[in-house]
Amino acid sequence: MDTELSEISTFIHNIPPFDSLPKQVLAHLVRELSINYVRKGDDFPPKGINEPRLYILRKGAISCLSADGELVSRLGEGDLCDAFIHSDTNALSDKQSTISNQLKVHTDEDCLIYSVEATVLHDIGARFPSISDYFSQNSAQRLKTKMSQVNEEAILSSTLMNTEVSNFYQSPAASINAKQTIQQAAMQMNDEGYSCLVVVDNDNPVGIVTDKDIRRRCVATGLATSEAISEIMTSDMCTIDVKSNAYDALMMMTAKHVHHLPVTKQGNLVGMVTVTDLINNEGHNAINLSGIIHKANTLTELKEISHLLPKLQIRLAKLGSSADHVGKSISAITMAFTKRLIEMAEYKYGQAPVPYAWLAAGSQARQEQLAHSDQDNAIIICDSMKPYDDAWFESLATFVCDGLAECGFIYCPGDIMATNPKWRQPQKMWHNYFNAWVETPSPKALLNSCVFFDLETIYGDVSLLNKVRKNLLIKTKNSTLFIAHLSKNALNLRPPLGFFRDFVLKQSGKHRATLDLKHNGIAPVVDLARIYALSEGISAVNTIERIQQAAGTPSITKESAENLIDAYEFLGMLRVEHQAKKLMRGESADNYLSPKEISKLEREHLKDAFKVIKGLQDARQSSY
Amino acid sequence: MPSTTLANSPVFSWLMGYEVKRKKLLAKAPAGPLHDFLSVPLPALDTPIDKVEILAVDFETTGLDAKRDKLLSVGFITLKQQQISLKTSYHQIIKSNAQLEESNVIIHHITDSQKEQGQALSTVVEALLKALAGKVMLVHFARIEKQFLTEACYYLYGMAPVFPMIDTLVLAKRRLDKRDVAYDPSELRLTNLRHKFHLPEHHAHNALNDAIATAELFLAQMSKTNKDGKTTLKEVLL
After folding, report:
1. Which single residue of A299, A526, B101, B123 has CA 20 to 30 Å from A145?
2. How far, in Å, are A37, A57, A67, B54 from residue A45 at the CA level?
3. Is the same domain home to A177 and A238?
4. Number of domains in chain A
């Protein structure tokens, strides 16, 4: 390759999808480039170029406008302009040729522009599908490719390769003295809840015994349970060093057909790792934490445990868990905290006078909570309650909400909490609330109440909420006015257009330094999913479940539903990664992503996600 | 007609009537690369500059004295219809026996061993003349390319050719002189001029990179001075 063109090569090589090209092909592409200088305000493409080309901005800025003058994107250094890549007669797809015919480009600054003829790109694309895919696929297809890659990588790297055994093992290992009897071993297993013990002699591990050994080598053979445990132990046990990677541990277990491995540190026994620890480790973490929460007896203990929550979120993110998984794990733990606090309150104030249920609203109900979000909750009480019964429920609400606040779940700024008498009502009042919202909707009332359309029972009598929900869904399904108002609110939150240099580009053409992942990405999808669910009478509250169940209904096609889930998962992934980074630096986990934080390719994928969301928002808008 | 300041300059008189001179030289030139080069007519002085085919050229040399120093490498690229096509780019290191001085190696990064793998001066000059035929040469700081090419042709063919030139340094200098404000001569360096026009950083002192950098600078200069597209070759010639 000509080293003298290395500068241009390096520049092109940094731009996806060209980053995937081998050196020689890149060199060929570079030699096919042309350089033009376009003055601010001049025609674009430059005069004299008639054949379809891909343009690459080396310096300067251009704006792409739709036929009616609406800003579509603004491009700066290193951005690709593929608006003129398809000839009118030989378009790759009809849709794209219409788009490119409509696009107008305005030169905002003096530009130095590289360009390559579409035919050259086409030839390269024939050998390298990553190139042809990039330019022939639409946003939704590109996003799908990306998400399936992400999922594959998650499985492959599946974290076990990259994680030390030290992250998984339980310490200390349960052990038993070699002189103790088989029966004593079985009793210890029962008491401590272990299926495996390390047998020690003068503190030296000499073997391992599992409950299976007791069955196979003792009970089945008629050996007396008064015999020493050393009689039935496996003495040539394998161990694994705490620094080994978890994948090796799993492989060793598979090879030796064992489910338990004693873990050593510099030769000394420090703990035990089981096959379930490794395979299901993420889930187990949340479950373990829930178990500890359940055993906590005081608020102080709960508070201690709550400090683990950000750590859990970091770890889940590091392990490559999907945002869906992280949200479900964190929500499960918030649920455990809430339940434990309710139990404490019931212990303190006595049993409830009438049946009731503690409800979670918003992100917790949707199982999409992240560490230290604010609390949204309510109480639904059996209609048999007497006015004086409320005192008990007020005490309960105060105890639980204060407790949650102590544990880092800040009070809801909108006062959507069970401590607010308005949200601590008998079932019939909840019926009334929902009837009013649905039958005589006003956009403002809906804005404040839409959090109640995502409601889940955390504790208590599940039937109370289920009845209310059943009625509600029958009503919403048939109320076009309600759905129209809800849609109007939801469409206020629009994703941005994309990026320009290191800024976020808004529809208005204005620039922002950061992207609000929550309000300009995730919330619009959550809102759409809620509208689909309420229009179609779907009782699910989790966003992905709502979209999945709405797929193929008049609200959304199967294909669009898949695209929307891809967009949602991609945004969720960026959010989880962003928050993990912040938490690891000891900062609070916010939703403000700076474009500088993410790669060029991720920006492209984000742009695609925005496009998918915007398309479905537009479809919603045009139906009302 | 030339402006009064230029009419008196020796450079201009050298340029005056380059077509006449080309034909005269063609009659004397021996058969071969130089003859071929001289047989292609040059664009008329009143051709709009946008329509003129240009070859941006840069030489790396062992020093500034064309009589004593050696040509190390040649880079060039075509500028046609205001478009630079990388397909037309050429870069070649020249094989010679001259020992490279360390201070110089630091600048152009051509080492003795690279030079050994280079091609003969005759091959490279032939390639340059072939690409340059019918075109106007574009350089930054014309003295080096003018003197070294002239010297090389004397050495190879026994006579010097005529080749009209555009110098981006001179174009910039003319503009600065017009303003009648004192300026730092370093402002006229290729890198600094590119910076002024907001062109990207480039890796200087590689013959092809510098040729491309010069061509880009020329496009930027013309975007400022040739807004109506009426500027002729005559107005930008050295």
Report:
1. A526
2. 11, 12, 16, 22
3. yes
4. 4
